[in-house]
Sequence to fold (335 residues):
Amino acid sequence: MEGPVTIRDVAARAGVALSSVSRVLSGHPDVSANMRAKVEEAAQALGYEPDLLAQSLRSGATRTIGFIIRDIANPLFAVVARACEQELRRNGYSLILMNSDGSVETESKNFALLRRRRVDGVIASLVAEDSPYVKKTILSLRAPLVLLDRDVKGLNASAVITNHAIGVKAATKHLLDLGHRDIAFISGAANVYTTRNRIKGFSEAFAEAGIPLPEKLIALGGFDAEYGLIHAHHFLLKNPRPTAFVAGGIGSTAGVVRAFNEMKLEIGRDIALVALDEWPLFDVFATDISSVYRDPEAIGSEAAHLILEVLNGQDARESVIDTKFTARASSQGVL
Fold:
């Protein structure tokens, strides 16, 4: 057969009406199992591929979801995106992945591009919650939105929120119980929910123990390795230096570990460390690292569920996923 296979060809092979083929291929529920089997068998035998553009023009839906990631280099986001895509694919949707590279300007352009592509919805890990364009740009989407670990007031958006505080509080209590008092805390900027919630757990542990918060050992500004490296070095040059570090994120933890290595400090013996998020390759570079874990597969799957709910007519809602602290060798630093 020359040229592209059409639904007329499928109808002729299946021996059914053109309208029946259309109903089957569009996923209409009011189709008999026998009819569906005939049409699907004919379509497969002929190698029929639907014209997605034509379908979207007819239905007004593109069957695509935009996914905007703050930093695609972060291994955790890669797992989140994969889990999200798998769930969406099972429900007949494709994912368009876009990286903002930590830039609010790039993020704004990503939103604009997804709007022009007329995606059916957007899942986003925003660079910041307080940039002036955020609300205006998001509202202009006119499509359902799911936020990942972000709290932007005044938006009718669903959100997957991680309870970082519960895990960070447990980790900090663990360090305090071991006798640590000078505990350094390095994480991203406070203009995102993730950092605010983490510092909340850190502060609560000190308050409940009746111990003053070491505010001069708190650095909030970046999740990347360079930020972790620079501020770890800064704190390690203090006298007395911190006896323990809490590093907010995979990038930050990598930078802190590098600083320890450069200063010939053995993790778990000379200095204690807790990582906020896990990365399997950490064990290649350092002693088993104590961590506060959030399940990236659960986050990705839940984000997909939330966007599908709204597309199916349900109200936007918030879903909370807890974190868990696991003590390993790295947090036993000698005082």
User: Anything to note?
Assistant: The chain has a mean pLDDT of 88.
